[in-house]
Amino acid sequence: MPADPPSHEPAGGADRGEPRRTSDTSGRSAETAGAPVYAYPARLWRALDRHRPPGAAATADAWRSPVRGPWLTSVLGVVLLATLPLVIVTGLLDWIAYGPRLGQALPTDVGWLRPPVFDWPTRPAWLFRVTQGLHVTLGIMLVPVVVAKLWSVVPKLFDWPPARSVAQVLERLSLLLLVGGILFEMVTGLLNIQYAYLFGFDFYTAHWYGAWVFTAALVTHVAIKLPRMISALRGPNMARTPVGETTPEPADPDGLVSRRPGPTTMSRRGVLALTGSGVLLLAALTVGQTLDGVLRRTALLLPRGRQPGEGPNGFPVNRTAAAAGVRPADTGAGWRLTVRGGDRTVEVDRGGLLAMTQHTADLPIACVEGWSTEQTWTGVRLRDLAALVGAPERALARVESLERAGLFRQARLHADQVRHPDSLLALRVNGVDLSTDHGYPARVIVPALPGVHCTKWVRSITFEERPDD
Question: What confidence tens digit (pLDDT) does each residue in 433-451 have?
Fold first, then answer.
């Protein structure tokens, strides 16, 4: 962003001797030298204006970039308005993909914030790969746009008095929730994909409620500012002005234009180009996590998104056997899969599973951190295992892992996921046995299912009737 040159003029004139822009609830501007515009309770706002904190005027005048103004702020706002709803919607879809109807979405009990839900579809197989990839990748790419937008309005943080009407107080509160909400969501999201849980609270719960706070504040802010944004964009296209001809915009009711602009060091076109370059750079360092091939090597921002090795098992691992506490003895020759359905229980070893009809499918696996990959899986269809114990046609499956602790040591699959012809208890991948870190001796792989529910190191599968929703 263009720097804000330090002010060399005395601040006293701006503090008392010079007219100062204000705005009332209708957005009209006035000059305090003659008739300050205050709404109810006017006496309070006047008292605050008379008792200014030390250095208030000097601080306000320190922001001197001449490119700030309604046009630049509105352009950045349009970009966010076009993209943030996609981040919100994909985040909501990802929560639904976790299976709230099966009681395993996180957070589980969301009260009246529970949206309409449905059983997550199994077609197309890449559905979760796209929704989660968009949510994470687009969220990272928007960081420079958010920073530029905040930079364009930062002088407003130093207005004094902080409000001149009750309506403006409410607007400021919504703005506080908007800015705080988006920063909270981005920071916690970035820490989550880096596995850096520096905060002392549950990520899923905090991210869910933070998203609702941000969404409510965004809707409020858009409702208040949309007319101003449209008006600013209908004016001259200021991106075409070169540096030498860049001048400040006319004074605006919101006070975005600097009162004492400094010399021009960058045009508005330059600010947009710098912001766009940051977006493209983050895209180049991120998008490879969702694509197989050479681009995966460029996913430098994602610790699990890159290719960890060569060979058939050389694709990303989210949680290793050691991290899950799965010991070699647990997966050795004594391992048995327990399959239950109604009153019938069958135990089968890995050799017995390999003797059953094998099915091969090319399926992606996608994780909440944003990375995904498509591999070729071979194993026993889940519906064949259901038939082995005489499970009902519409039975769901409860899959349990050898893992002894952790949020995802078990998962439930609804009937469509169990019955899909490509839903497998996978024994092999890319023509070889699964590695221990990829779930040996057996793991679940289901089309469009979040990776954390594709349970690894499976020890039992129970087919059971689904309770009423």
Answer: 999 999 999 999 999 999 9
Strands 424-429 vs 372-381: parallel, antiparallel or unpaired: antiparallel
**Predicted pLDDT at 31:** 40
Backbone angles phi, psi at 51, to 5 degrees: -110, 75
Contact 3, 265 (CB under 8 A): yes
Which residues, 6+ apart, have CB-to-CB distance to 399 below 8 Å? 410, 411, 412, 413, 444, 455, 458, 460, 461
Q: How many domains does the chain have?
A: 2
Sign of CA dihedral 135, 139, 145, 149: positive
Domain limits at 76? 70-284
The answer to whether position 23 is within a domain reads: no
pLDDT at 2: 55
Same domain, 278 and 326: no
Query: How many other CB atoms are there within 10 angstroms of residue 342's CB atom?
Result: 14
Average pLDDT, the chain: 87
Query: Where a domain ends, among 237, 262, 284?
Result: 284
Domain identity same for 279 and 395: no
- Residue with the two structure tokens 């639904």: 96
Give yes or no: residues 424 and 356 share one domain. Answer: yes
pLDDT digits (tens, 9 = 90+) for 228-256: 999 999 988 888 888 888 888 888 887 88
Q: What is the pLDDT of residues 396-411, one digit of tens each?
A: 999 999 998 888 999 9
